[in-house]
Each structure stands twice: as C-alpha cells, then as structure tokens.
Amino acid sequence: MILVFGGAGLCVEELLPEQSYIALRVLFDEGAWVLTCFAPIRYSRMHKGRGRCRSGIELVSLPLEYQKLINRYLLNRQTEARRAQIRAEHNNELL
C-alpha cells in the first residue's frame, strides 16, 4: 500500500469496481495506532505484464484526529528518508 494524505494506492489480485467501498484497517507504528474506515474505490487498472491490479482509494470523512496522525506519520517517514539519503551521500564522500 502506498499512503498519501488523502488516499492510498493498493496492489491487488483483481480489479475492484470503481465507486464501490472497501473496509480498510491499517496498523501504524507497529500497531501503536490503527486506522479503520470505509474507503471508496476511485480507480482500478491492470498492470501491464504483471497480472496484478492497482486501485486508488480515497480517505473521506476521517476524524480530524486521524487526519493529523496520518499527516504526522507521513512527515516522519519523509524526514527519515531524507536523513538516510544525507547519510548515504556523506558516506559516499568519505570513500
């Protein structure tokens, strides 16, 4: 699953009907908090040559608390990725 602030991308085995809903449960920070909601399918497409599908879902009507938690989670992930990139660049300069 690829998570963004307003939704997520899912890799699944079959096409999901657009405008239908799925039940979603996502564990964050090793289960420190759980997002549980229903999300509408906004698109569903076949991956060429992979035999899998990609579906986009929208996270709608989430409580403000969940919105803040998702935003904080995404910002922390971006910060961690940037720090790792800086460390890798620094290590390459030392070699």
Provide the succession of SSEs.
Answer: EEEEEH
How many separate helices? 1
Give the count of structural domains: 1
Arithmetic mean pLDDT: 87
Strands ordered across the widest β-sheet: 1-2-5-4-3
Fraction of residues in β-strands: 35-45%
Helix content: 25-40%
Shape annotation:
flat
Largest sheet: 5 strands, antiparallel
Unreliable spans = none
Calculate the terminal CA-CA distance, rounded to whole Å.
36 Å
What is the CA-atom radius of gyration, in angstroms?
A: 17 Å
Oligomer: single chain
How many runs of DSSP E, i.e. beta strands? 5
- Category by helix and strand content: alpha+beta
Explain what the structure shows.
- Strands 1-2-5-4-3 form a five-stranded antiparallel sheet, covered by helices on one side.
- The protein is of the alpha+beta class.
- It has one domain.
- The mean pLDDT is 87.
- The chain contains one helix and five strands, in the order E-E-E-E-E-H.
- The termini are far apart.
Task: Please describe the topology of this protein.
Elements: E1 2-4, E2 7-12, E3 21-28, E4 33-46, E5 53-58, H1 64-94
Antiparallel strand pairs: 1-2, 2-5, 3-4, 4-5
